[in-house]
Amino acid sequence: METIPLHAPLDDTSWTSCRQPQVLVLGHFDGIHTGHAQVIQRALDYGAEHGLPVGLMTFHPHPKGVFGRSEYHRYVTPPMEKERILSRMGLDRLYVVQFDMSFAQVSAQKFAEAVCALGVKHVVIGFDYRFGHRGEGTAEMLKDWGNDCFTVDIVPAHSEDGTKVSSTRIRQCLAQGDITKANQLLGRPYLIQGEVIHGDARGRTIGFPTANVNPEEPYIIPAIGVYAAKVKVGGTWYDGVLSIGLKPTFKSGETVPTIEAHLFDFDADIYGETIAIAVMDYIRSEQKFNSIQDLIAQITADAEEARQRLAAMDAESMFSCAAQER
Fold first, then answer.
1. Alpha carbon 106 to chain centroid distance?
2. How many CB atoms lie within 10 A of CB 37?
3. What is the 3-state secondary structure (H, E, C) of 66-85?
4. CA–CA distance from 222 to each of 15, 97, 134, 160, 178 (Å)?
C-alpha cells in the first residue's frame, strides 16, 4: 500500500501528481471498526469487479481536535496503527490529508472537484459522511456533484445490539474499561504498541517482572485497572496480565497512568524493544494494598484469572491474536 500525504491548497502538486482512475473511500476512520470494514469492503469489491485500484482518504489530525476538542488528540487507531491495519485489508493507496484551519475553509463543492481531479471513478462513503467547510456537504450532495465524474455508493449504518457502531461508542467503552464491547465493535482486540522502557523494577523483586511500555503513538489508554492481555514480542504472542494504573500502593499524587505487562512463561531482557499489547478482558479496578504480601497474593490471583480467561477466549472466540499479522 502506498501512503500519500495531501494538504491545502487543493491545486497543490500533492493532489495533481497522483491522478489515476481509481475507487476512493472517504472518511476519518478512527478505529477502523466493523462498520468501517463494511464500507472498505464495498470499495474493494467494486475495484476488483471493475479492475480499478482502491484508495482511502483520511484526515489527520482529527478535525474535532483541531477545533479544540482535547479528547480527540488521542486515537483508537493513531496514524501508524491505522496504516498497518489498512495495509492488511488490501488497499492500494492511503491518502492522508493534513487537516488544519486552511483545509477547514475549503468548500464542499471545491472538495468534490478535487476528488474528481484525482481521477476517481467511484466513491464509497458511509451514510453520515460530511465534508467541506463546517460540514456543509452531505452524502447526497456528493452524489449530485459527482454525477459527471464519479458514481457514489452510500453504505447504510452498521449496528450492534440495535445501536450504530461508531468511533465515539468505542471511545466510551475504552474509557469505562468495557474492553469486551470495544473489541466486539472493533472486530479485533484493541492494541497498543510501544517501546519497553525502564520502570521501578519493583515487579521483579516480588516475583512478577513487568514490561513497562511507552506507547509509540497517542493511543486512547483504556480505563485504569487490571486486564487479561496478549503481548507480542518479536514474532511470538505470549499470554499475560496488564496493569494500567497509578500504583497507589507505592505512590501518591500520580496523574499519568503507567502501562506494564507481566508475560507468562517468559524471561528475557526486552528493554528497548517494541512490543504490541492486545487488551483482551477487564479483570478488576486498581487497588491500594496495606502490605506487599497482600499485593503479591492479588497479583497471583490476577495472573491465574487471566490465564483462565485467555484460554477460554482462544477456544471459542474471535479474539485469538495468534491469527493476526502485524
1. 27
2. 18
3. HCCCHHHHCECCCHHHHHHH
4. 37, 28, 31, 21, 9
* Whether residue 53 has a cis bond before it, omega within 30° of 0: no
Residue type, 298: Q
Give the ranges where the chain is alpha helix by DSSP (H): 13-16, 34-50, 63-66, 79-89, 101-104, 108-117, 139-145, 167-176, 179-186, 202-205, 292-316
**Burial class of residue 18 in the structure, from the number of CB atoms within 10 Å of its CB (0-12 exposed, 13-18 middle, 19+ buried):** middle
Distances 252 to 173, 211, 223, 279 between C-alpha atoms, Å = 27, 22, 18, 26
Query: Which residues of the chain form CATH 2.40.30.30?
Result: 190-323
What is the C-alpha to C-alpha distance for residues 140 and 272, in angstroms, rounded to an integer? 50
For 317, residues 6+ apart whose C-beta sits below 8 A from its C-beta are none
Distance CA 152, CA 120 (A): 10
> What residue ranges of the chain are covered by domains with CATH 3.40.50.620?
2-160
Distance CA 53, CA 260 (A): 41
What's the fold here for domain 2-160? Rossmann fold (3.40.50)
The model's pLDDT over 54-94, given as tens digits with 9 standing for 90+, comes to: 999 999 999 899 998 989 999 999 999 999 999 999 999 99
Single out the catalytic residue among 260, 286, 304, 316: 260
Q: How much is the pTM?
A: 0.91
259 DSSP β-pair partners: 244
Pick the CATH number of 190-323 from 3.40.50.720, 2.10.70.10, 2.40.30.30, 3.30.300.130: 2.40.30.30
Helix (H, G, I), strand (E, B), or coil: what is residue 185?
A: helix
Highest averaged pLDDT of the listed ranges 145-159, 219-233, 308-322: 219-233
- Residue 260 annotated in active site: yes
